[in-house]
Each structure stands twice: as C-alpha cells, then as structure tokens.
From TrEMBL:
Residues 198-362 form a coiled coil. The keyword Coiled coil applies. PROSITE patterns: LRR (PS51450). Keywords: Coiled coil. It comes from Glomus cerebriforme. The lineage of its organism: Eukaryota, Fungi, Fungi incertae sedis, Mucoromycota, Glomeromycotina. This is Uncharacterized protein. InterPro entries: Leu-rich_rpt, LRR_dom_sf. It comes from the Eukaryota.
Length: 463
C-alpha cells in the first residue's frame, strides 16, 4: 500500500531533530507524493530508493545542496526529465539514478531520466555513477576525471538509450566490472568529434550570453536616461511657469508679434503631423520586434532539440541564426527607444509654441504700463525693434533646422546681439527680463537640434 512521503517523513523525523541529521534513509517504504527537506540543513547522505516518487522537485527544497556527498534516487517512478536539477550538487561522490529491478520495469515503474550527463560536469569529487536502464544517451565526455565507476546497463530494458553510453565506454572498461578509464574515453571523444569545433561552439554560446547581458544593461541605461530627461523636462516646465510671472516690460508692436505667433502655430501643426508619423513608425517597429521575439523563441526550441539530438551542424547554424535575430532585435529596440525620445521632444516643442503665445499675451498687458514713460518711448522703441530682429533670427534658425541645416553662426550672432541689447536695456532696468528670454531661447535651440535628429530618423525610415 502506498504512503504519502511527507507523512512518513513527519512521523520518522521530528522537526526538532532534522537540523542535526546528516543521513536520511527513507528507502524501500513504498512512498509517493512530495517531500519538504527545508529543515535538513546538514544533510550529507540521502537515500530514497525503491519507492514510487515521480517528481524530483523535492530536491530543490534542500537548503544546502552543496553539502550532499551521497544521493540515491534509483528504482522510483520519476517522469521524463533531464539532469539539470542535479547541477547544484557539486560535492557528490556517489550518484545513483537508474532502475535495476526487473519486476518494477515490467510493471512500467522505472526512472525515465533522459538527455545528457553534461549537467554533472562540475561534480569534481564524483567517483561512482549509476544510470542503468535510463534514456540518458550522451555527455560522458563532460564527466570529471575523478569518475571511476559508471554502471550503464540496459539489459532489463533493451530499448533504453543508455546503451549508447555503454557501447561508447566498453573499450575503456576493465574486464568483468563497471570500472572505466574516463580520461581516455574523453580524449578519444574529443579527438573523434573535433575539440576545436566544440570549443568554438562553447565560445559562441558565451558570447551570446555576454551580448544578452550587455543588451539588458543598455536597456537599463536607456531607462535611466529617459528618467533624467523627464526630470529635466519637469524642471524646464517649472522655469517656464516662473517666466510667466516675470514678462519683459517691452512695448512690442502687436501686429508684428501676432504674425510671429501665427507662423509658430503653423510650425506646431507640422510638428504634430511629425509626431503622428513617428508614432505610426514606432508601432510598426513594435510589431517587427514582436515578430523577431517569436522567431527567437522558435529558434531557441529548435536549438534545444538540436542539442538533445547532438546535431552539431544544426547547433552551429541555429546559433548563427539566433545571433543575427538578437542583433536585429537589439537594433529595432534601440530605434523604438529613439523614436519615443523624439516623440517627447516634439511634444516639448509644441508646448514651447503655446508658451510663446501666452508670453505675447503678457507683453500686451504690460504695454499700458510703459505708456507713462513717454520721455523714454523713442529709446524703448529702438530696443523693441532690436528684440523683434532677435525673434526673427530665431525663426530663421528654426526654419533651417526643418531643412536639415545647422545654424551655428546664427546662434553665435544672436548671442552677441543679445549681449548688446542686455547692456542697452540695463539702462532701463529690464536686463533681468531679457536674460529670462535668452534662457528660453537657448532651450528652444536645444530642442531644434533634437528636431534635426527626428528628421534624420524619418529620412532613414523612408529609405
């Protein structure tokens, strides 16, 4: 009669004693179900053979797998699984995984482990390995040189794939026993299959993993830069709010200023159109990225199957295809990040246009206050003309950016003219207001440069 494994464990090993246990023997008890070994902190030997356990998940509950030196899970009923669950047990000296009870096998009760022994490559103290009647069919070339005995019989289950390993190791066994010269077997394997080719494959895998790490790092960096840009944008918005309360006391010509605002409004419409186009391009890129990810998942599945089949040619081909897919994926993700940044830039430029419109309204309000300075009207009028020329120069630079041209000389000229105007206006106590406008102008210039980048991306996408 079957018994729940955890019930047996609870009745035989009280919780208060488990931390001191170094040996756990629960073999030949007809156990099924799951086990929780989290309290066995000093376990060195575990024998749960001759039961009907079907899942190896209980081994993951051991708090210190590196302390285990003996593990026997033979003659159970484990479902089909590779040996990756054993990779943490690096200090094992003896490992038993097979089934050698003919009566159990005839009833269909046996361990169905399969695949490669590669997961045992770091068990440098391993001496004895038992894998009888399993479907483990490859990977002996990765076993540590310390291995002395490999029991790999397929006599009770002739269809067992472990026969491949048994046949390969047969020339390196001592007569009449399971001892094996694993060193010679490994050398012969690598000489036969090409050590350089395997090393190159391992190198490509390492490179691919490294590129994946770099891709994640670059993504984190882009996220951080995006956060910084949002912070800078918030700061600019705050500064713009402050500027609204300190409008320059200049007597502007209403018609001329209205004309400038109308032109900026037209530019704003163009910017919105650009934003919509960029947004559509981004959605197309996202669709491409999703498709690339699906292709990558399919290639990963094919690669897994190729590795299980030990098809080196297919592995090499698939690794190259995966690398190309990941490169393409990284490129498209960078383009998406760039488009998202440019969408924000256009939004900021549109906001700048709105702010200039509000600035005009503030100017008109303050015109009345300037009327009482009639004796200074002519001087101020001259300064107003110069300020209008400054705005016109700014608009010229803005138009040149739309035509994909740089305007370094215009910016320098504006800076020089701004300094001269500041000196003149200092006589009328208006230097601070002009300085605020100059800061605003520099912000617009920076955004113009970003607009240039947007145009370049649009051009490359259209090409």
């Amino acid at each position: 009669m079957l018994m729940q494994a955890q019930d047996y464990l609870n009745s035989s090993y009280p919780e208060g004693q488990r931390r001191e246990e170094k040996t756990l023997e629960i073999n030949n008890q007809n156990l099924e179900g799951t086990l929780d070994l989290k309290d066995f902190e000093n376990l060195e030997s575990l024998d749960c053979s001759y039961n009907q356990l079907s899942s190896t998940n209980f081994l993951s509950t051991l708090p210190f797998p590196e302390k285990l030196i003996y593990l026997n899970i033979s003659n159970n009923n484990f479902t089909e699984d590779d040996l990756s669950f054993l990779s943490k047990f690096v200090e094992l000296e003896e490992l038993r995984l097979g089934t050698f009870d003919e009566n159990r096998i005839n009833q269909g009760i046996y361990n169905r482990f399969c695949g490669s022994l590669k997961s045992l490559r770091n068990m440098n103290r391993l001496e004895t390995l038992e894998i009888s009647n399993t479907d483990i069919d490859s990977g002996y070339e990765y076993l540590p040189l310390n291995v002395r005995t490999i029991i790999s019989s397929s006599q009770m289950r002739p269809e067992a794939k472990v026969e491949k390993i048994d046949d390969a190791l047969s020339p390196y066994r001592s007569d009449g026993n399971w001892e094996v010269d694993i060193g010679s077997a490994r050398i012969n394997f690598w000489e036969t299959h090409g050590l350089e080719k395997i090393d190159e494959l391992e190198r490509l895998i390492d490179d691919l993993n490294s590129k994946n790490v770099n891709l994640k790092s670059e993504n984190a960096k882009l996220i951080s830069e995006n956060t910084n840009l949002e912070s800078e944008n918030a700061k600019l918005n705050s500064e713009n709010t402050d500027l609204k309360s300190e409008n320059v006391n200049l007597n502007l010509k209403n018609d001329t200023l209205n004309s400038r605002i109308d032109k900026l409004t037209g530019i704003g419409v163009d910017l919105l159109n650009d934003w919509n186009e960029l947004h559509n391009n981004k959605q197309q890129l996202i669709t491409i990225v999703d498709e690339l990810k699906k292709q990558l998942e399919l290639k990963d599945e094919e690669l897994k199957k190729a590795r299980e089949a030990n098809d080196e040619t297919a592995i090499m081909k698939l690794m190259q295809e995966i690398e190309k897919l990941k490169e393409s994926l990284a490129e498209k993700e960078k383009e998406i990040a760039k488009l998202e940044e440019n969408e924000k830039t256009i939004t900021e430029l549109v906001k700048s246009k709105e702010e200039l419109k509000k600035l005009k309204e503030g100017f008109l309000t303050k015109i009345d206050k300037m009327k009482r300075f009639s004796d200074q009207k002519e001087a101020i009028s001259n300064q107003v003309d110069k300020f209008l020329e400054l705005i016109e120069s700014n608009e010229i630079s803005f138009k040149k950016s739309e035509k994909y041209k740089k305007h370094t000389d215009e910016v320098k000229s504006i800076k020089t003219e701004t300094d001269n105007i500041r000196k003149e206006l200092a006589k009328f106590g208006l230097a601070k207001e002009l300085n605020d406008l100059s800061n605003k102008q520099r912000d617009v210039t920076k955004k113009e440069l970003k607009l240039q980048e947007i145009k370049d991306i649009k051009k490359s996408l259209q090409g």
